[in-house]
Amino acid sequence: MPTVLGIETSCDETGVGIVADGVLLGDALATSMDEHARFGGVVPEIAARAHLHAVTPMVRHALDRAGIGFGDIDAVAATAGPGLATAVQIGLAAGKAYALALGVPLYGVHNLAGHAAVDVLEHGPLPHRCVALIVSGGHTSLLLVGDLAHDPVVHLGDTVDDAAGEAFDKVARLLGLPYPGGPAIDRVARDGDPAAIAFPRPMKGPNDPPYRFSFSGLKTAVARWVEQRGDRAVPVADVAASFQEAVADTLTRKALAACRDHQVDTLLLVGGVAANSRVRALAEQRCAAAGIHLRVPSPRLCTDNGAMIAAVGDILVRANVAPDRLDLGADPSAVLHGALLHGPGARTTGTQRPVGR
Ligand code: KG4
């Protein structure tokens, strides 16, 4: 079975993974998160420099953990977008260099396809058709997904403004919690009352698009509520828990509606925000009640990592998809149409083609 080396550098994590036939052989992760904390968000130049320092050691760590050498690698996959331009360039350049030096094919893959593909490593092959809710720091999308290699990905709805993770990060900041905000809110919300404050559920009205998201108004509602406290202390745990509840409710309600409306019996919940304990619990509860099979990777595989890029590369290799040329360019704002960033699906602008064979 071909062995795929995957490299991820789209944001502040330098991730490397090695996958063969749907099995994770080894992985390694470095993060520059602490270097960004004092700025309250990721500084692209700092992230890129950190990737430059970390990528080679992470490749060596992943190979050591897998117990293999460079000669055992049959293909290289690297994130070619979307992400921070300078950060993506480092991992893609490293991927090209390894592919060239080892004489193996290169796949420039879409970061969000990696989020979806990583679940294969824990829960086996994807079903023939599923609804995927991808919730990360930069994206919030409800998608109809097939095999990732050939079937075009259909966008049912995306966020019209902030992504869910971005809302977590911004609300955390206004509550004085550290970056990254998602895990911080998740932690403090454990001591709060999710019903303490009735924050709005965005895009829920009968005339709103059923699968679109908007989190900017919710973020503003939290900011107003905090402002109105004036000199009184802000009950941070209650605000965090109530905000988190509004996000979890909105995400899971729309995801279940998408499954129901499209007669799909599997929901794939992935991306950094899928690590959130309340989002996971509510998704489990609602999927169980609706008879929908929920697939969600363990929290460590929800946030950016190298295993997910190796996993998507492995899917492409096994599906005999033609690799990229070494002059492939990065695309920091690539829309997800398929696993291969510049694959045939990437030229498909119509978003309503059916998925499945
Ligand atoms: O998928 P991801 O690692 O990559 C990017 O989008 O770059 O997602 C990162 C996002 C951040 O916004 C972070 O705050 C959020 O995922 N996140 C969480 C949790 N862990 C990470 N949000 C809510 N609860 C969490 N436990």
Q: Terminal Cα separation, in Å?
A: 25 Å
Helix percent band: 40-55%
Q: How many DSSP-defined strands?
A: 10
- pLDDT < 50 stretches: 347-357
What kind of sheet is the major sheet?
5 strands, mixed
Count helical runs: 12
Would you tell me the structural class of the helices and strands? Answer: alpha/beta
Which of globular, elongated, flat, extended, rod-shaped describes the shape? Answer: globular
**Which whole number gives the mean pLDDT?**
94
Strand content: 15-25%
Task: Trace the largest sheet across and list its strands.
Answer: 3-2-1-4-5
Q: Give Rg in angstroms.
A: 20 Å
Series of H and E elements:
EEEHHEHEHHEEEHHHHEHEHH
List the ligand species.
5'-O-[(R)-(carboxyoxy)(hydroxy)phosphoryl]adenosine
